[in-house]
Design brief:
Elements lengths: L4 E10 L3 H12 L5 E4 L6 H10 L4 E6 L2 E6 L2 E7 L6 H19 L6 E3 L9 H12 L10 E3 L18 H9 L4 E7 L14 H9 L2 H9 L2 E3 L2 H13 L1
Parallel strand pairs: 1-2, 1-8, 1-9, 2-3, 3-6, 7-8
Antiparallel strand pairs: 4-5
Length: 242
């Protein structure tokens, strides 16, 4: 089993809008998405939580939302900021609030924690999220134990369109190249988008690729097992008890 490969395909932004909700559920039912991260601050979050209850095979974690930034006119500019990401006390309070809202909506704690635009890679957000993950006993994105793959994304660093990276062929190639162990691959599928976004064109392309039969075939050919974070945690507990 040392060479076994397991893949969590996690869809970010669940709850952001009805179109995103529909796209993620389709990518779960018809494609390879096994897990999603819920943005609890949006009106569509309650509907997303209800959809997750109807599809219990879909793991559901918290997508901590502290703000969003867009690259325009040669600089990153805030579209909105929930709290200042450099204010440790404000970050901790907002994280606690969003975790409580998650449990209110879902009726259970999250299976994992990550953040919108990866803001928890920097302090003080990182320490706050790590503490929350440890207290809940759940994985945190970019932390040891689960390898992170963000290569299935249709833009470059400064929003340069790269649609070839979110084709079915590209996704199948990522599957073929997975290293042994557990990998989380993130995605952002949606039906045609119902809000303004710099990533509006790419989301439906991701959805198409995630549902393409070639990706399922690649999983079979390369002996990659789909999983969600609950299964990863259960396996880890079994292994540690042996």
């Amino acid at each position: 089993m040392s060479g076994a490969r397991r893949l969590v395909v996690n869809a970010d932004d669940f709850g952001r809008s009805p179109a995103v909700n529909r796209g993620i559920l389709r990518a779960h039912r018809e494609g390879v998405v096994t897990s999603a991260s819920l943005m609890v601050r949006y009106p569509a979050a309650a509907a997303a939580a209800a959809l997750a209850r109807e599809h219990p095979a879909l793991g559901l974690g918290l997508h901590l939302d502290l703000g969003e930034w867009e690259y325009r006119d040669g600089a990153w500019r805030a579209l909105y900021e929930v709290v200042a990401t450099g204010d440790g006390a404000a970050v901790a309070a907002e994280l606690a609030h969003q975790l409580a809202e998650f449990e209110r909506l879902v009726g259970a704690p999250p299976t994992h924690i990550d953040s919108h635009q990866h803001v928890h890679r920097e302090e003080p957000v990182r320490s706050a999220v790590r503490r929350a993950g440890a207290a809940l006993g759940v994985p945190v994105r970019h932390e040891p134990g689960v390898r992170y793959c963000g290569a299935f994304y249709g833009q470059g660093r400064h929003s340069t369109p790269l649609p070839e990276l979110i084709s079915a062929a590209a996704l199948a190639a990522l599957v073929a190249g997975l290293e042994p162990g557990v990998t989380e691959l993130t995605c952002h599928p949606s039906e045609p988008l119902d809000f303004a976004s710099a990533y509006a064109t790419e989301r439906p392309l991701e959805l198409r690729a995630l549902c393409d039969p070639r990706v399922r075939r690649a999983l079979t050919v390369h002996d990659v097992e789909l999983a969600d974070f609950r299964e990863i945690r259960a396996t880890s507990r079994q292994t540690s008890s042996v």
